[in-house]
């Protein structure tokens, strides 16, 4: 249908192109080339220059607006990421005020056991929070507990009374402090808060975090030479973090422009009062202001002969730290695109002027153009009509396809219900085979229950209350034993929908062995179970037990004529999957039967002993669990299938 529609469009377009060709040929025959007027050329040149100038400024403004829209979203992401990183650590100093061991240490108590518990708690808190260090300082400035207590260069016992985050926290109650780690060239941030007990300040809690991972992420994601540049500028207009490593700890001049001050010269140097280092200005040159408070700036280059790229600034203010998050977006393409647009518009305007002049001087072509327009309209109407016809056909085909899809879904539902019925029928067949054994299991407790009840009656007549209590306990134990047997039988016989969940593998195997205990003992088979303790898998418990019962029953049938009967159930884990294996000591499976083993209604048992559906149904159930049931020979028959380990067990 799409081909017919495309064909109709092609034929209509061919008609339109043929009519256009006829119009051009007719216009060439009926026109003459007049002399061009110099005034018309002057008008065309003026219009072209005006259109180019207007297009240049309009495209430039729109380009900056589009770059602003793109950059503001990126800036919001960087801003939110930095705010989130600082915000998720800001509450940590307050937690130290809740720990009684920390409060006792800050009061001046010298107890090694107490200090050991406090240090371990701080280390655990630091690991969970992802901080560099968490430590508690008493009012004298001595570190009493620290998360890095196990490190040779730990902070315990150091005097930090001159540290700014300590003195300010004592005065203000809370303080935030940024300090670069010169040794590792990593930005670090401190959160400090005074610790109070009964209203009195007894110390200061300090949390030190590293912003190096965020800065490394910025550097990796913005490593392209023409990509964005990200700056974090403090209240002193110094760059404390940047995606460009060479710009760190330099002075920008954006604050000077905002305050209408003279910006610093790139050759000027500023002395850092807190150190002996000399901070040089970045040398950012501001060309002009843009909309929305942005600026167009240029960065210096070592080679003056190379044109410096232009960047558009975007800025966000962080209330928590007083920092400004600034992005520099490369605006060179905006200017280049504006020039191309102006050049194209000027050329197009000149072309239109020449074409208009040409058409004005060839009035004879008007009639041909009108005729061609009517012909084109007829072709257009014909094309629309054919498109409508093809659309109607396509709509009918889509409706037919929807009906087929609905019918297929109904068929799939019927097949699934049939499979569930086959599973239930197979379970009932297995129940019939286990009926005799379960009857024997229940008959023994009933006989014992009758005897214990008679003894209890005699003890009641004789007034022997202690013996009556023992008999009643024995009766309760026997009733619980019968209850477990019938509960497993009822759970196995129940017809339930597929419910995926966490199932303990060993418990399912124990339930199946309990149901088949009578048959296993009657056939004198030895069962070896080697399963990881507490291993949980993702499946349906009822259907997993159905698969295990089918495989155990087939194994016992295969070992029917063997002198030594051994049934092994093992499981081995590989990553997030576990392989369950059921092996027997029987004669194995012949090679010609292996390919047909999981086909429905295929059975090697005598007539009347099976329908050949057990392995087919078991294979389907395992497939629903996301695994595969396979068979092979290894000193007997081995059936194995894989299941997914639950998330709780996968992370152990």
TrEMBL record:
The chain crosses the membrane at residues 38-58, 340-361. The keyword Metal-binding does not apply. Residues 366-428 form a coiled coil. GO terms for molecular function: ATP binding. It comes from the Bacteria. Keywords: ATP-binding, Cell membrane, Coiled coil, Kinase, Membrane, Nucleotide-binding, Phosphoprotein, Transferase, Transmembrane, Transmembrane helix, Two-component regulatory system. SUPFAM superfamilies: ATPase domain of HSP90 chaperone/DNA topoisomerase II/histidine kinase (SSF55874), Homodimeric domain of signal transducing histidine kinase (SSF47384), Sensory domain-like (SSF103190). Residues 437-647 form the Histidine kinase domain. It is a multi-pass membrane protein. Its EC number is 2.7.13.3. It catalyses: ATP + protein L-histidine = ADP + protein N-phospho-L-histidine. PROSITE patterns: HIS_KIN (PS50109). It is found in: Cell membrane. This is histidine kinase. It comes from Noviherbaspirillum album.
């Amino acid at each position: 249908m799409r081909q017919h529609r495309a064909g109709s469009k092609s034929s209509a377009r061919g008609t339109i192109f043929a009519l256009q060709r006829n119009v051009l040929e007719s216009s060439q025959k009926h026109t003459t080339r007049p002399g061009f007027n110099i005034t018309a050329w002057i008008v065309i040149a003026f219009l072209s220059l005006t259109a180019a100038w207007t297009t240049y400024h309009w495209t430039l403004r729109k380009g900056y607006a589009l770059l602003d829209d793109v950059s503001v979203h990126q800036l919001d992401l960087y801003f939110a990421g930095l705010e989130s990183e600082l915000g998720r650590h800001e509450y940590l100093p307050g937690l130290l005020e809740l720990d009684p061991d920390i409060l006792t240490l800050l009061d001046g108590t010298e107890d090694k056991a107490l200090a050991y518990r406090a240090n371990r708690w701080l280390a655990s808190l630091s690991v969970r929070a992802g901080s560099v260090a968490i430590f508690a300082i008493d009012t004298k400035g001595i570190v009493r507990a620290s998360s890095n207590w196990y490190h040779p260069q730990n902070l315990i016992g150091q005097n930090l009374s001159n540290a700014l985050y300590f003195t300010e926290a004592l005065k203000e109650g809370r303080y935030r402090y940024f300090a670069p780690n010169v040794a590792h060239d990593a930005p670090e941030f401190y959160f400090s808060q005074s610790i109070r007990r009964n209203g009195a300040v007894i110390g200061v809690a300090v949390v030190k975090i590293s912003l190096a991972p965020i800065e490394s992420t910025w550097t990796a994601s913005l490593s392209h030479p023409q990509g964005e540049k990200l700056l974090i500028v403090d209240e002193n207009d110094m760059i404390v973090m940047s995606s460009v490593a060479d710009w760190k700890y330099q002075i920008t001049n954006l604050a000077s422009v905002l305050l209408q001050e003279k910006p610093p010269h790139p050759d000027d140097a500023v002395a850092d009062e807190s150190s002996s280092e000399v901070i040089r200005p970045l040398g950012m040159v501001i060309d002009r202001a843009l909309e929305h408070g942005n600026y167009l700036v240029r960065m210096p280059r070592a080679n003056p002969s190379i044109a410096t790229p232009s960047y558009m600034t975007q800025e966000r203010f962080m209330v928590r730290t007083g920092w400004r998050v600034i992005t520099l977006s490369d605006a060179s393409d905006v200017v280049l695109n504006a020039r191309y647009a102006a050049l194209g518009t000027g050329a197009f305007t000149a072309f239109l002027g020449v074409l208009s002049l040409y058409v004005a001087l060839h009035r004879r072509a008007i009639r041909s153009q009108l005729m061609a327009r009517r012909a084109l309209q007829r072709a257009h109407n014909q094309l629309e009509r054919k498109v409508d016809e093809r659309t109607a056909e396509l709509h009918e085909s889509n409706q037919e396809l929807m009906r087929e899809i609905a019918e297929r879904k109904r068929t799939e539902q019927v097949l699934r219900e049939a499979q569930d019925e086959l599973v239930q029928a197979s379970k009932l067949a297995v129940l019939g085979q286990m009926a005799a054994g379960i009857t024997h299991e229940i008959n023994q407790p009933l006989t014992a229950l009758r005897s214990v009840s008679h003894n209890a009656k005699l003890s009641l007549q004789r007034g022997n209350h202690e013996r009556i209590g023992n008999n009643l306990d024995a009766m309760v134990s026997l009733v619980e034993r019968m209850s477990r047997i019938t509960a497993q039988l009822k759970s196995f016989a129940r017809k339930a929908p597929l419910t995926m969940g966490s199932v303990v593998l060993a418990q399912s195997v124990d339930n199946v062995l309990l149901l088949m205990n009578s048959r296993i003992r009657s056939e004198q088979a030895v069962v070896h179970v080697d399963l990881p303790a507490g291993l949980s898998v993702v499946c349906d418990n009822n259907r997993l037990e159905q698969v295990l019962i089918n495989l155990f029953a087939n194994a016992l049938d295969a070992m029917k004529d063997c002198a030594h009967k051994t049934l092994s159930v093992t499981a081995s884990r590989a990553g997030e999957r576990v392989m369950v294996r059921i092996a027997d000591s029987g004669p194995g499976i012949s090679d010609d039967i292996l390919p047909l083993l999981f086909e429905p209604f295929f059975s090697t048992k005598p007539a009347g002993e099976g329908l050949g559906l057990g392995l087919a149904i078991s294979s389907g159930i395992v497939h629903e669990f996301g695994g595969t049931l396979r068979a092979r020979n290894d000193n007997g028959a081995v059936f194995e299938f894989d299941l997914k380990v639950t998330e709780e067990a996968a992370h152990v």
